[in-house]
Design goal:
The complex is a heterodimer of chains A (519) and B (288). Chain A is built from 20 helices and 11 strands. Chain A has helices at 9-31, 36-45, 58-70, 77-87, 92-100, 111-146, 164-176, 212-229, 244-253, 265-270, 274-291, 302-305, 312-328, 351-365, 384-400, 420-437, 440-443, 451-473, 475-480, 510-516, and strands at 33-35, 154-159, 181-184, 234-238, 258-260, 294-296, 336-337, 339-341, 372-374, 405-407, 500-502. In chain A, the strands form 2 sheets. In chain A, strands 7-6-5-4-3-2-10-9-8 form a 9-stranded parallel β-sheet. In chain A, strands 1-11 form a two-stranded antiparallel ribbon. Chain A starts with 8 loop residues before the first helix and ends with a helix. In chain A, 58% of the residues are buried. By secondary structure, chain B is of the alpha/beta class. Chain B has 2 domains: 2-116, D-lysine 5,6-aminomutase beta subunit KamE, N-terminal domain (Defensin A-like, 2-Layer Sandwich), CATH 3.30.30.60; 129-282, 3-Layer(aba) Sandwich (Rossmann fold), CATH 3.40.50.280. In chain B, 35% of the residues lie in helices and 20% in strands. Chain B has 9 helices and 10 strands. Chain B has helices spanning 2-11, 18-31, 69-81, 129-140, 158-164, 192-201, 218-233, 254-257, 269-282; strands at residues 44-45, 56-63, 84-95, 99-108, 112-113, 144-150, 181-185, 206-210, 241-245, 261-263. Classes of the chains: A alpha/beta (519), B alpha/beta (288). The interface between A and B is medium-sized, with 28 and 28 residues.
Chain lengths: 519, 288
C-alpha cells in the first residue's frame, strides 16, 4: 500500500505489464511498416523544403514519384539518393522538382550504388537531426536564462483565430496575462490533409493551419514574450492526423515545446486507419523524444463521447498504453503529458469527489509525468455563470491533485470561440484558485478506505480487467470493436490506408536508424 | 386601464416614445400590479429584475480602449444606445493595455410583444422509441434508413454522435438503439459527394448532418452546398429528407438553406426520431 490512495503496487505493476502485452504487437506492426508521411518526414529532415506553384509540397511530389516507380515498401531514401548520385544533383529539393516534371526515373539500387546511396541518405538526414539537437539545446539555454513558470500546474491557453498574424498578438497578450503554454489550434480539417501546407497563412476554420513558417513566426514572437516576462513561454501544436510524422519533424526543427500526440486519437476521432496511425505514431514519438518535446495525449476526448463515470477506466487504460508506446519510442517520463479531463455530469451526486478520485489516480499511477488536466466541455451548457463555477471546481481539483499542465477552461465553451474577455475571466478564475489553494495537494490526503480511495481502486480494477480482455484478443480488435470512446474502427478501414506499406527486404530509413541509436 | 395603455404602447408607440412609455410603466408598477389582469392575456413584457415592469438587464462587453474615465463614459454611452437608461456601470477592468471589460446593469426601455414572436414550434407528436419502432414496422414495413455525417471541414462529431450513437445524450439512447432504424454514421469531415453517394447506396430515407463550427458562417455554406448537391443528384421525389442540426442554427432558416428541417440546441434523439416518423411515415410529406 503506497501513496495517497493506497494502491496495491502489485496491481499497478500488473496493469503496466498488461499494457505492454497489449501494445507489443502494435509496436511490431509499426516496426515492419512504413507510410508516405514517415517517408516525407525523412525527406524533410534530409532538407527537402518548399512547395510547387499549386502549394503541394516538394516532399509529396518526390514521394509520389518514387512510389510510382518502385513502390513504397523499400523506403524512399535509397531510390532518392541513388537518383541524386546518378543525376549528379546535390540539392534534394531540386531533384524533387525534376522528378515532379517527370525527368527523373527511380530504381531500387543494389550493390555498390546501394551502399553509396545509403551513406549519402544517412549523411543528409543527420544534418536535419543535428538541427533538431541544436534547437533542443537552444531551448535548454533559454529556459535557464528566462526560467520556468513559478507555479505548477503550468497554465495552458489556446488561441485560434485562423490568421497567424492575429494569433501572434493574442498569444502575446495571453502570455502577459499569465499563460505559460500557448497552443495554436489547427484549422479543422487539417488532420485529414495528406500534406503540410506551406508558408504563413491567414485563412483557417476554427483554427490556424500548422505550417513550418507559422511555427517559426509564433516561436519567435513567444521568444520575445519570454524575454519581456522573464519566463520561458512554451508553444504547442499538433502532431496528429495524416501528417503526424512530418509535424513532429517540423516541430523539432522550429523548437516547438509540446505537441498533441495521442496513440489512438486519429483512429477514434478522425477515422484514420489504425495501422497508418500506429506507424506514424511511433516515428513521431521518436522525433519528439530526440527534440525534447513534451507530448500531450488525448484521453480527455474519450469522455466527450463516452460517459465519464462508466468509462473512467478506459482513460486509465489509454494512459497506460500511451505510456508504454512513449517509453518504447524513447520518451522520458517528464515528456509524458498524459491527458485526462473533468467531464463528469455535474448532476451526478458526489461528482466532485469522483473527479478527485480519477485525477488523483492518474497522479499516483504516473508520478513523474506532467499530467495534462483538461477542463469541462461536455456539460458546459451555455449558462456562462454555471460554467465559470464549474471551471473553478475544475481548477480546484487540478490544484488538489498536483496536475502538471492545466488547460484553461472557458465559461463560453460551446458558445463562441473564446473572446478576449472570456480568456481574461478564465485566467482570473485560475489565478484565484491557484493563489488561494495552490499548495492544497500537500494537505489533501483522502481518508483511508473512504469514498475517493474506493473509487480510485475500482477504476484501476476495471482498467486491469479491460487490459486483460484486450490482451486476450489484441489491441486492434479492441479498437475495431469500439472499446475506446465507443468508436468502432476496424484495421482494414479508415483514411490513409493507401499510404501504408509493409517493409520489403532492404527497407532503409536513415532517420529511424539515427533515432534508434543509443546516444 | 394599465393593461390598455401597455398594449397600445406595444402596438403603436414602440422605440421612439421612450419617455412616455417609461412613465406609464412606472405608474403601473406602483399601482396596478397582480390580479388586475390575467397572465394569459398579457402580451407585452419587459425584463424582470426584482419588480414587475422594472425592465432590468445585465450586459457585459469589451471596448478596445484603455481603462480610464473616458472608457467608462463610452461604456455608459453604448449601454444607452442599446436602450439601457439609466445605465449603471458596476464593473470596469482593464484587459491588457488596450482593452477594458465592462459589466453594466440598467433598465432597458424596449418591450417585447409576445403576440408578435415567431418561433418554430414542434409540429409533430413526440413518440417513445417503442412507438417509433411500431409505427415504422407496421406502416413502412421495412427499416427506415438514416445516413448521418459531419460535412465539410467540421471535425466535431459530438452533435451527430449524440443523436446517432447508442449511447445518446443525457440518458436518452441515440437512433442506433431504435430497432427499426438502419443508421449509417459516416463520422467527421465527410465530403458532400461522399455523403450523396452514401445516401444513394444506403437508400437513405433521411440524411442527418451536424454542423458545429460556425466560424465565417461555415455551417451555413456547408448546408447550402449539401442541399444543392442533393437537389442536383436526385429528382425531387427520390431525394431523402434533409435534416441539419447544430447549436448555432436558426431553426426558421430551413427553406433558405434548402433543407427540410433544422434542429437547434438541446435537440434529443427522441425528437429527431419522432420527426422522422412524422415526416416519412405518418404524414408523408409532399415534395416541393
Amino acid at each position: 500500500m503506497t501513496g495517497k490512495l493506497g494502491l496495491d503496487p502489485a496491481l499497478v505493476a500488473r496493469a503496466r505489464e498488461l499494457a505492454r502485452r497489449a501494445g507489443q504487437p502494435v509496436v511490431e506492426l509499426a516496426r515492419s511498416h512504413t507510410t508516405v508521411s514517415v517517408e516525407r518526414a525523412v525527406l524533410r529532415l534530409a532538407g527537402v523544403s518548399g512547395a510547387d506553384p499549386d502549394g503541394i509540397p516538394w516532399v509529396n511530389r518526390l514521394v509520389d514519384a518514387v512510389v510510382a516507380d518502385v513502390g513504397l515498401g523499400h523506403g524512399v531514401a535509397l531510390p532518392v539518393f541513388d537518383a541524386c548520385a546518378r543525376e549528379q544533383i546535390g540539392d534534394v529539393t531540386l531533384l524533387a522538382q525534376k522528378a515532379a516534371a517527370g525527368s527523373v526515373r527511380f530504381t531500387q539500387p543494389t550493390g555498390r550504388a546501394a551502399t553509396a546511396a545509403r551513406r549519402a541518405a544517412r549523411k543528409a538526414v543527420a544534418v536535419g537531426v543535428r538541427r533538431i539537437d541544436r534547437r533542443r539545446a537552444e531551448r535548454d539555454r533559454l529556459v535557464r536564462r528566462f526560467g520556468d513558470p513559478r507555479q505548477r500546474p503550468w497554465i495552458y491557453l489556446i488561441v485560434a483565430t485562423g490568421d497567424i498574424y492575429e494569433d501572434i498578438p493574442q498569444a502575446q497578450a495571453a502570455a502577459r496575462a499569465g499563460a505559460d503554454v500557448i497552443a495554436v489550434i489547427r484549422s479543422t480539417g487539417q488532420s485529414l490533409l495528406d500534406y503540410v501546407p506551406e508558408g504563413a497563412t491567414r485563412e483557417g476554420f476554427a483554427g490556424t493551419y500548422a505550417t513550418q513558417e507559422n511555427f517559426r513566426l509564433m516561436r519567435a514572437a513567444l521568444d520575445e514574450s519570454s524575454r519581456e516576462l522573464g519566463r520561458y513561454v512554451r508553444l504547442t501544436n499538433y502532431a496528429s492526423g495524416l501528417c503526424m510524422p512530418e509535424m513532429a519533424a517540423l516541430a523539432g526543427l522550429e523548437r516547438l515545446d509540446m505537441m498533441l500526440n495521442d496513440s489512438m486519437y486519429g483512429i477514434l476521432f478522425r477515422d484514420i486507419n489504425p495501422i497508418r496511425t500506429f506507424v506514424d505514431q511511433r516515428f513521431s514519438r521518436q522525433v519528439h523524444a530526440r527534440a525534447g518535446i513534451i507530448i500531450n495525449t488525448g484521453e480527455d476526448n474519450y469522455l466527450t463521447t463516452a460517459d465519464a463515470v462508466d468509462e473512467a477506466h478506459t482513460v486509465t487504460v489509454s494512459q497506460l498504453l500511451n505510456e508504454y508506446f512513449a517509453h518504447e519510442a524513447g520518451l522520458a517520463d517528464w515528456q509524458l503529458g498524459l491527458g485526462h479531463a473533468f467531464e463528469i455530469n455535474p448532476e451526478v451526486p458526489e461528482s466532485l469527489r469522483l473527479e478527485l478520485a480519477h485525477a488523483l489516480l492518474a497522479r499516483e499511477l504516473f508520478p513523474e509525468a506532467p499530467l495534462k488536466w483538461m477542463p469541462p466541455t461536455k456539460h458546459m451548457t451555455g449558462d456562462v455563470f454555471r460554467g465559470n463555477l464549474l471551471d473553478g471546481f475544475f481548477n480546484l481539483v487540478g490544484a488538489m491533485t498536483g496536475q502538471g499542465i492545466l488547460l484553461v477552461g472557458m465559461m463560453t465553451e460551446a458558445v463562441v470561440t473564446p473572446w478576449l474577455s472570456d480568456r481574461d475571466i478564465a485566467l482570473q478564475n485560475v489565478r484565484y484558485v491557484l493563489g488561494a489553494a495552490g499548495g492544497l495537494h500537500e494537505d489533501f490526503v483522502p481518508a483511508s478506505g473512504g469514498f475517493i480511495q474506493q473509487r480510485a481502486h475500482r477504476v484501476l480494477g476495471e482498467a486491469v480487467d479491460l487490459l486483460d480482455r484486450i490482451g486476450d484478443q489484441s489491441l486492434l480488435t479492441a479498437i475495431a470493436e469500439g472499446t475506446f470512446g465507443i468508436m468502432k474502427r476496424p484495421a482494414d478501414r479508415g483514411k490513409g490506408l493507401d499510404g501504408v506499406a509493409r517493409h520489403e527486404a532492404g527497407y532503409y530509413n536513415p532517420a529511424t536508424e539515427i533515432l534508434e541509436q543509443p546516444s | 386601464m394599465s393593461e390598455r395603455t401597455e398594449r397600445s404602447e406595444g402596438h403603436e408607440g414602440m422605440p421612439s416614445q421612450h419617455g412616455m412609455s417609461e412613465r406609464t410603466e412606472r405608474s403601473e408598477g406602483r399601482e396596478g400590479m397582480p390580479g388586475q389582469h390575467g397572465m394569459s392575456e398579457k402580451k407585452i413584457v419587459r425584463p424582470y429584475g426584482d419588480t414587475t415592469g422594472d425592465g432590468m438587464v445585465q450586459v457585459s462587453f469589451t471596448l478596445p480602449v484603455p481603462h480610464d474615465k473616458r472608457a467608462e463614459g463610452a461604456a455608459v454611452q453604448l449601454a444607452n444606445r442599446m436602450g439601457i437608461d439609466p445605465a449603471m456601470l458596476v464593473h470596469a477592468k482593464p484587459v491588457g493595455d488596450e482593452f477594458t471589460f465592462f459589466v453594466v446593469y440598467g433598465r432597458v426601455n424596449h418591450l417585447v410583444d409576445l403576440g408578435a414572436v415567431r418561433v418554430v414550434e414542434r409540429d409533430f407528436p413526440l413518440l417513445s422509441a417503442k412507438e417509433v419502432n411500431t409505427v415504422v414496422k407496421q406502416r413502412l414495413r421495412r427499416k427506415l434508413s438514416v445516413v448521418g455525417a459531419c460535412i465539410g471541414t467540421d471535425a466535431h462529431t459530438v452533435g451527430i454522435d449524440a443523436i446517432l450513437n447508442v449511447k445518446g445524450i443525457a440518458g436518452e439512447k441515440g437512433l442506433e438503439y431504435y430497432r427499426e432504424l438502419k443508421v449509417t454514421n459516416l463520422g467527421a469531415q465527410v465530403g458532400v459527394p461522399e455523403l450523396v453517394e452514401a445516401a444513394r447506396v444506403e437508400r437513405a430515407d433521411a440524411v442527418l448532418v451536424s454542423q458545429v463550427v460556425t466560424q465565417r458562417d461555415a455551417h451555413l455554406h456547408n448546408t447550402r452546398e449539401m442541399s444543392a448537391a442533393f437537389r442536383e443528384a436526385m429528382p425531387a421525389g427520390r431525394r431523402p429528407l434533409l435534416i441539419v442540426g447544430g447549436p448555432r442554427f436558426d431553426e426558421s432558416m430551413a427553406g433558405e438553406l434548402g433543407v427540410d428541417r433544422i434542429f437547434g440546441r438541446g435537440t434529443t434523439p427522441g425528437e429527431v426520431a419522432s420527426y422522422l416518423v412524422h415526416a416519412l411515415v405518418t404524414n408523408r410529406r409532399v415534395k416541393a
